Every structure is written in C-alpha cells, then in structure tokens.
Amino acid sequence: MTKLFSNLWKLPTLGVFLTGTAFAEPPPAPKGFMWVVNEDFTDEFNGDALNSEKWYDHHPRWRGRPPARFMPENVSVKDGMLQLTNGTLDESISSRHGEFTLGGAAVVSKKTEAYFGYYECRLRASSISMSSTFWMSNSGQHYPGVGRISQELDIQETVGGSKRNEKFARYMNSNTHVWHGGDSDHIGNKAELPTKSDEAFYVYGCWWEDASKCHFYLNNEHVGTVEFDTTLTEEPFRHPMHINMVTETYDWETPPTPEEINDPSRNTTYIDWVRAYVLVPTDGSLADWQLKKLKEQPREWKSANGKSSTKAKLVKAKHGYAYLRKKGGKEIRVPVKLLCKEDRELLEKVMASN
C-alpha cells in the first residue's frame, strides 16, 4: 500500500487500489482519477476477534429500539466473518422507551471521517424478523438559519425473516435521510434480489459521489441513483459520517419469538467483509472535495519540532506560506518550512492543485 497524503482533516491513511487484488472493484473511476482503499473503514474479518482499533462492539450513542437491546456479547468474528447473533436476554431491562427482552447487535466504526467515496459489504441476512443492515450516519451539524441537520445513508436495510412485509426480504432497500427536529426528508431506492436476503450473500454498495447525490450498486451492478432532498439546504450531505452494521427490531415489524431468535440456524447476520475507497487525482494533486474540506473544516497544524500546534482552516497556500484562519476569524501566515513533515507534504499537494 502506498501512502498518498497524510491526515487531510484526519482523513484515513490510503493505499493504492490495484485491479486483480482480493478487493472487489468499485465503479469505474472518472477520467483523471483513481480509487484508493480507505483502510479506516475496510475489514476482511479474518481474525478471531473484532478489531477494537476500528470498531465498537456496541453503539456508543444508542442502546437499540425495544424490545431488542444491542449487546456486545452478540458480536463475534469467526470463520472469516463478522457475525451478529441475536437472542433473548436473561433478564428484561427497563428503559424510558420500553422494555428490552431481546438481544440485538451493533458494530460501529470508531472513526467518523468517512466521506465521499465508495462503501460496500458482502452480507447474508439472518432468517428472523430482525434487521440486517449496513448504513452510514452522523450526529449532525448546525446550519445557519435552519438548525441542526444530521445525515443517514442506508445502503442496505433488510429483514430476512420478515413477517409483515415479505418484500423487505427480497430487495436491496436503500434510503437517504436528512434529519431535522426529529423528522426526516427521505428519498430511497429499491433493487430486487435474485433470492431472499437470508438465502445468499450479496454485495451491497454505494458511491457517495458528493453532497448532492449517491449511486447504489448490487453485486457491482448499478441499480439506482438518488439525489438528496434539498428542502432544508442545497448540500444536505456535506459532512463526514461513520459506518454502522446493526441488527435491530422495528416498531412496524413483529418481533421474533424466543424459539425463533434462539435458533442458531437462523438468528445470525453474516458479514464477510466491508470495504471502502476514495477517489484521488492520478496526477498527485488534491481533489476538489479535499481542497474544499481544508477550507471549510478546521484541522490541527503542527510545528516541525512538535512543540506547538494550531487549529485552523486553510485560506490558501502560496509562495512558501500557509495562510490559516483560526476560530474567531483571525488570519495568520505561517512559513511552510516551519510545519511538520506531513503538513508540508499536504501543502505541497495544495499548491500543486492551484
């Protein structure tokens, strides 16, 4: 793997994508660009335990929807797969939202900087009336004049053993949500599967192209494009997100019986792998979205001796100087040679992109 550039607002370390490796191919890259692997959100699950540097074995901000609570012990890695196994709780747990009597599972990325790119997983759903999902989300950002808006990008949301809506087991059910004040403006996409989602492994993918649209893929075939709802803002998906792989109960679906949820032949969602990629220019410069992020989002700029740093947005890089805008609007000029190696390399890319 070849490192292309370092920590663009905490962007992941990137490795060059090579055709013919074990990685499935993302869509063809636009002219002048190439896909590189985003290691922060890529995992083959070939070990004997969940990689705790990449993933939580629970959801850090959500306990689950009653009657199923996310339980860390229901998450395992074995036989080359991530396994989310559901079951009953030994004792019920009360909450203000209802009674938890069942155990679901959640695996959530620890990093929250997943941005424009291609995201996919190879998944086989469980055969009970609980979800098997692969999706992205964030906790939201403040938009002037509007308030807090959060994003949700559901790549696949299926119920392999659905009791109330069999179609939910026979489709790649994708959706996009722009959340505001507890409600969402949503636009979705559906693609029919060759079998039920619990009968075979399928590769579910999404190319999050930019702040305005995304494209969905089933087994590497394009199955639909969604333009995000712009009722609240022209660029509703302009902020990074994290990845979620979750099994949960729904208020519109009949929960599984104790016999169903404890049946090891049907109670597990299997995820063979999850992979992520980003586009970068082939000439070594930065993509427009990377430049835009540097100018819109503050990052930590570090001195060459490692003794000081400043958090600021980049205004421009020119003639050996970086012009930075700190919180409050104060602008400073810093000689590039006084910054650490990774910042100097990043600014060289910025200047090559102008």
UniProtKB/TrEMBL annotation:
Signal peptide: 1-24
Domain GH16: 20-282
Domain of life: Bacteria
Record key words, sorted: Signal
Entry-linked Pfam families: SHD1
PROSITE patterns documented for this protein: GH16_2
InterPro entries, alphabetized: Beta-glucanase-like (IPR000757), ConA-like_dom_sf (IPR013320), SHD1 (IPR007131)
Family the entry assigns: Belongs to the glycosyl hydrolase 16 family.
The protein, known as: Family 16 glycosylhydrolase
Organism: Pontiella agarivorans
